Amino acid sequence: MHLVWHRTELRTHDHPALCAAHELARQDGTSVLPLVIIDPKIFGRADLTPRRRAWFLENTCALRESYRKLGSDLIVREGDPTQVLDDLARELKSAKHPLRTAHFIRNYTPYAKTRDAAATQAMQKHAVQVFTYGGQYTHEPGEVLTNEGGRYTVHGPFIKKWRSLEKPEILARPRKLPPLPPEVLCGEIPHVESDIVLPKTGEAAAKRRLDWFLANNEENYQAIRSLPALEDATSKLSYYFNIGVLSPRLAQSKATTYKWNFELSWWDFFADLLDKHPDSASEEAVPAWRGFAWRNDSADFERWKNGGTGFPLIDAGMRELRQTGFMHNRVRMATAEFLTRHLQIDWRLGEELFRGWLLCGDRAQNVGNWQWVAGCGLSAKAYFRTGNPISLAKTADPNADYIRRWVPELADLTPAQIHELGQSDARPANYPAPMVNIKETRARYSETAKAHLAKSKS
């Protein structure tokens, strides 16, 4: 029999590991064993919120239904992956058809690499051959190289090479699978109550969303993507990409406009950066930034976290995130910049919060974007180019429709009144005064960064 271990690709379409296992099972007349392991080192983390646990589990339920429609089922186990795989191989040793091969799509986070190396050793002890595949990226980390064979650190040159490479074949899912043997117990999928309303789950829903976006909004994507008041201006596919319910390769293969293709390439770029620089998961990617004087002011952090900064766009974004598990991309950049530059609070605190609250809280994307905004990452925004959340609100949300949706205490104000709140004393009694002076905080961050970098060079 042939095992398919699902981790961050809870789908049956465009799944190289499943297709390979299915072909072997077809040849020797045995079964494919699809498996999801609920890993306590991931599910037990303090930063893994109920919404993130529920999102994974509900999509695991949808994956089980996908397999049942194909004539098979999904095995679900809880525990350390190495032990679970070792136990499963032992259970099947006396079966009519013991486990012969194991297949999975590669992951690239530091933890995943350690986990997969241990799991591979456990399988090989039982004479089970292990095969790994690409599948979560159009081009896997380490594939997009400079002409000299090096790795890129800047997105512009990366995407030029990325676009020039031959794209992988998109694989159809098997039409039918043999049933699981009776001696294999499927196991129950735990239930976790989400703290938010989840989007529709499963690969069929994700593919419908992709098709809707391509048909309705991709052509206008460049013009409308920066307007958070338009709820469908962006694809809202990132939370499906994050756990592989939708193949990012499939989305890229269907993209017809340069701009959306450009945005999709960031998925590969940040994964490549984290693979090359694994220490950047927890420290600044640029060594000169390490030891920077980040503030750890818990009171200021809580005001930002709870949407009470007195800057309407920032507060709207944080409230949207808390209530939905999503935040518009342009507002994400504004809220992250406010925390790291205007409050000068450690980017790691914001990254951890976003990773827990966002349904699409992918580690590589999250770390890459937070360090880009904070100024301390590779190919980052320069420290002297700090934005103004007041002027940004005027351009991104000129009619204040987005702000009024998420900050209802401002509903009776005109757009002009709302946009002046970050620098005016006139405000509703139930809305806070701005917690900082933007000119002063921009200057403070710039001076601190300049002095720190100068000291690092000396």
- N-end to C-end Cα span: 61 Å
By oligomeric state, this entry counts as single chain
C-alpha-based Rg, rounded: 24 Å
Strand order of the largest sheet: 3-2-1-4-5
Regions with pLDDT < 50 over 5+ consecutive residues?
A: none
Helix content: 40-55%
Average pLDDT, rounded to a whole number, is 95
What's the total number of strands?
Answer: 5
Give the SSE string.
EHEHHEHEHEHHHHHHHHHHHHHHH
Would you write up a description of this structure?
By secondary structure, the protein is mainly alpha-helical. Helix content is 48%, strand content 6%. The protein is built from 20 helices and five strands. It has helices spanning 16-28, 40-43, 50-69, 81-91, 110-125, 155-164, 203-216, 221-224, 238-242, 248-254, 258-276, 298-305, 312-324, 329-342, 347-357, 363-374, 389-396, 401-406, 415-419, 438-457, and strands spanning 2-6, 32-38, 75-78, 101-105, 129-133. The protein has a five-stranded parallel sheet with strand order 3-2-1-4-5. Strand 4, helix 5 and strand 5 form a beta-alpha-beta unit. Helix 4 runs parallel beside helix 5 (110-125) and helix 14 crosses helix 16. It is globular, with a radius of gyration of 24 Å.
